[in-house]
Write a structure and sequence with these properties.
The protein is an alpha/beta fold. It is built from eight helices and nine strands. It is elongated. GO terms for molecular function: ATP-dependent peptidase activity; ATPase binding; serine-type endopeptidase activity.
Length: 255
């Protein structure tokens, strides 16, 4: 027995008075957009999109916006002489404002960069102060002493600021700043320590290195005493991290 189902599909008819908007590409075909306000708005919208699609890359303008790269931030910097603005990396901008930031272990390569920057800034204008910000564990002995000797040889005054921690030779560089221009943030930590070595080999080699370390230790303590105005016997004491670093450093002559 055959059963037939007579079904009639009713498709909704779209009348001009319906609120549904039909688009052909980007041009609206709904009669509700025939008013002047909406017509001008869609013409302007269509013009912008059409211009973006017809650009050289064929991509929307939003995708062509240059975002800040991940890594070293770039900041706008105004050239004082030319009066023009340009995008430079943040370290370059700080160097141009005579700000040097030491935030890592001082090795030979990093020390050479700091030396070159200080010498260049001193040749540009030796009457303006150089600001050195310290936040690091110190570093190798010879590169750190090279920075210290350069600081003392510059005609430009050098102010030092501890913004986090200044351990070992970083604390020694902090004390090398100009008197009255040495600062430490309230939560900063400063610790001084005698130079250490790792001598290996013959007994004569170990003895010679021990003598050299003793000579360098005496030099560091004498320089600290001269820079802080404290007697050497007060400088020579067991190393420890100061709990109230800024206040103790001021009483120790680091201010």
């Amino acid at each position: 027995m055959a059963v037939s189902f007579n079904t009639t599909l009713h498709q909704p008819s779209l009348s001009p008075s319906c609120s549904i908007k039909l688009y052909s590409g980007l041009k609206p075909q709904s009669p509700s957009f025939l008013t002047n306000g909406y017509q001008n708005l869609n013409k302007e919208f269509y013009g912008r999109i059409h211009k973006s699609l017809q650009s050289g890359t064929g991509k929307a303008s939003r995708s062509r916006v240059k975002m800040m790269p991940i890594g070293t931030p770039r900041v706008p910097y105004r050239n004082r002489e030319e009066g023009t603005w340009q995008w430079v990396d943040i370290w370059n901008a700080l160097y141009r404002e005579r700000v040097i930031f030491i935030g890592q272990n001082i090795d030979e390569e990093f020390s050479n960069q700091i030396l070159a920057t200080m010498l260049y800034l001193d040749t540009l204008d030796d009457s303006r102060r150089i600001y050195m910000y310290l936040n690091g564990p110190g570093g190798d002995l010879t590169p750190s002493l090279a920075i210290y000797d350069t600081m003392k040889s510059l005609k430009s005054p050098v102010g030092t600021h501890c913004v986090g921690l200044a351990y070992n030779l970083a604390g020694f560089l902090l004390a090398a700043g100009e008197k009255g221009q040495r600062f430490a943030m309230p939560l900063s930590r400063i610790a001084l320590q005698s130079p250490a070595g790792a001598a290996r080999g013959q007994a004569d080699d170990i003895q010679n290195e021990a003598k050299e370390l003793s000579r360098i230790r005496d030099y560091l303590f004498n320089e600290l005493a001269k820079n802080t105005g404290q007697p050497p016997e007060k400088i020579v004491r067991p190393p420890r991290i100061k709990e109230d670093a800024p206040r103790q450093d001021e009483s120790a002559g680091l201010g």
